[in-house]
């Protein structure tokens, strides 16, 4: 989920989480300078050129790609395959899985090759398209997580029985992609594919880097800070507020009616979705901090700069496969569906691990009638 371009010393930003950035190091053009700081990353000090380190990086990225493709594909398959999985919340979860699939297929393979070779081998067109698709995916992810939190807040905190309709949810998903496409556009527009000559070692390499107006990195830094706010700080603030209010609302419901299966399912689902957000935030936090320090030229003097950048990037990319694991751990529908798939069992049209929805609803309604309360809205 990163863009390509740490090759050019004039490009101090890369636009992402604020654009899921790539990190091939940015100082190759300075290798021929007599006054080059020996502590800056270079061919002679780049530990990622070590064979054992490269094998470890290949193994790590390959595992993330494999788990991400398998897990997110299964999530989408189950929502399409089973009727009772086609809920508004699950449609948003499928959208989240689709964004992660984009990362696993359009980001990580290119990132791995670019990291190992320190050269962009994929041509001018992909130089623009790959960073754009990567930025697009992270925008979609955080917007979707925010929408899920707000929708559950609307229904649970305000006791609204009317959930979003399917057409409305599909419209919101479409709007999410449109907004994400606009926010990610600078990563495709302000980009340059060119060749760099490194005379002292007689080397000519292709680079894919940002090229902001006026030939400075000021606009890149402004974009980076803006995206940090829009993609991380502000959304996580909104999500935290929404889930805190939801949790307090559910915690304070102690009547017999609200101890029903419906309330318990709401609590479990809310825990699961909140944990998805926490994992996303924790995975991306180290990368954001390091990226911000890089934009401000605070960490480039470190000899292990590129290795640190790569490790933080790997941690961030772990968020692309953790969601299906969380669903399988905390949701019986997903867990049973995954088990049926891997056991090649007969697959009915619906998954009902805890009895039918109708049975649960009738049980909850009966409890409410006994207490004279209104039943909670469907999850």
Automatic annotation (TrEMBL):
<keyword id="KW-0472">Membrane</keyword>
<keyword id="KW-0449">Lipoprotein</keyword>
<keyword id="KW-0812">Transmembrane</keyword>
<dbReference type="InterPro" id="IPR001358">
    <property type="entry name" value="NPY2_rcpt"/>
</dbReference>
<feature type="transmembrane region" description="Helical">
    <location>
        <begin position="272"/>
        <end position="290"/>
    </location>
</feature>
<dbReference type="InterPro" id="IPR000276">
    <property type="entry name" value="GPCR_Rhodpsn"/>
</dbReference>
<dbReference type="InterPro" id="IPR017452">
    <property type="entry name" value="GPCR_Rhodpsn_7TM"/>
</dbReference>
<dbReference type="InterPro" id="IPR000611">
    <property type="entry name" value="NPY_rcpt"/>
</dbReference>
<keyword id="KW-0675">Receptor</keyword>
<dbReference type="GO" id="GO:0005886">
    <property type="term" value="C:plasma membrane"/>
</dbReference>
<feature type="transmembrane region" description="Helical">
    <location>
        <begin position="310"/>
        <end position="330"/>
    </location>
</feature>
<feature type="transmembrane region" description="Helical">
    <location>
        <begin position="170"/>
        <end position="190"/>
    </location>
</feature>
<dbReference type="GO" id="GO:0005929">
    <property type="term" value="C:cilium"/>
</dbReference>
<keyword id="KW-0297">G-protein coupled receptor</keyword>
<feature type="transmembrane region" description="Helical">
    <location>
        <begin position="55"/>
        <end position="80"/>
    </location>
</feature>
<keyword id="KW-0807">Transducer</keyword>
<dbReference type="Pfam" id="PF00001">
    <property type="entry name" value="7tm_1"/>
</dbReference>
<keyword id="KW-1015">Disulfide bond</keyword>
<feature type="transmembrane region" description="Helical">
    <location>
        <begin position="129"/>
        <end position="150"/>
    </location>
</feature>
<keyword id="KW-1133">Transmembrane helix</keyword>
<keyword id="KW-1003">Cell membrane</keyword>
<dbReference type="GO" id="GO:0042923">
    <property type="term" value="F:neuropeptide binding"/>
</dbReference>
<dbReference type="GO" id="GO:0004983">
    <property type="term" value="F:neuropeptide Y receptor activity"/>
</dbReference>
<keyword id="KW-0564">Palmitate</keyword>
<keyword id="KW-0325">Glycoprotein</keyword>
<feature type="transmembrane region" description="Helical">
    <location>
        <begin position="92"/>
        <end position="117"/>
    </location>
</feature>
<feature type="transmembrane region" description="Helical">
    <location>
        <begin position="221"/>
        <end position="243"/>
    </location>
</feature>
<comment type="similarity">
    <text>Belongs to the G-protein coupled receptor 1 family.</text>
</comment>
<protein>
    <recommendedName>
        <fullName>Neuropeptide Y receptor type 2</fullName>
    </recommendedName>
</protein>
<dbReference type="GO" id="GO:0007193">
    <property type="term" value="P:adenylate cyclase-inhibiting G protein-coupled receptor signaling pathway"/>
</dbReference>
<feature type="domain" description="G-protein coupled receptors family 1 profile">
    <location>
        <begin position="71"/>
        <end position="327"/>
    </location>
</feature>
């Amino acid at each position: 989920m990163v863009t390509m371009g740490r090759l050019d010393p004039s490009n101090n930003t890369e636009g992402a989480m604020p654009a899921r950035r790539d990190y091939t190091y940015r100082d190759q053009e300075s290798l021929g300078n007599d006054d080059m700081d020996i502590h800056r990353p270079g061919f002679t000090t780049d530990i990622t050129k070590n064979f054992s380190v490269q094998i470890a990086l290949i193994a790590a990225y390959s595992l993330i790609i494999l788990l991400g493709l398998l897990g997110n594909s299964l999530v989408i398959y189950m929502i399409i395959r089973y009727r009772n999985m086609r809920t508004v919340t699950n449609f948003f979860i499928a959208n989240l899985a689709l964004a992660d699939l984009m990362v696993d297929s359009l980001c990580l393979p290119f990132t791995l090759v670019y990291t190992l070779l320190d050269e962009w081998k994929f041509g001018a067109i992909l130089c623009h398209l790959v960073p754009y698709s990567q930025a697009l995916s992270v925008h979609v992810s955080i917007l979707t997580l925010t929408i899920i939190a707000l929708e559950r807040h609307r229904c649970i905190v305000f006791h609204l029985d009317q959930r979003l309709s399917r057409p409305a949810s599909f419209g919101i998903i479409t709007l999410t992609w449109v907004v994400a496409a606009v926010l990610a556009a600078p990563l495709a527009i302000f980009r340059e594919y060119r060749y760099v000559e490194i005379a002292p070692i007689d080397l000519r390499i292709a680079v894919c880097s940002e090229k902001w107006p006026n030939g400075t990195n000021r606009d890149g830094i402004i974009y980076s800070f803006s995206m940090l706010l829009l993609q991380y700080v502000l959304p996580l603030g909104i999500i935290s507020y929404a889930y805190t209010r939801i949790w307090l609302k559910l915690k304070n419901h102690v009547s017999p009616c609200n101890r029903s299966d419906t309330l318990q399912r709401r609590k479990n689902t809310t825990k699961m979705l909140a944990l998805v957000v926490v994992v996303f935030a924790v995975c991306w936090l180290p990368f954001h901090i390091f990226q911000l320090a890089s934009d401000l030229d605070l960490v480039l003097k470190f000899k292990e700069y590129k290795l640190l950048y790569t490790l933080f990037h790997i941690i961030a990319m772990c968020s692309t496969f953790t969601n299906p694991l969380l669903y399988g751990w905390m949701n019986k529908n997903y867990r049973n569906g995954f088990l049926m798939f891997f056991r090649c069992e007969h697959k009915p049209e619906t998954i009902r691990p805890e009895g039918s929805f109708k049975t649960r609803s009738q049980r909850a309604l009966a409890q409410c009638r006994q207490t004279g309360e209104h039943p909670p809205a469907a999850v």
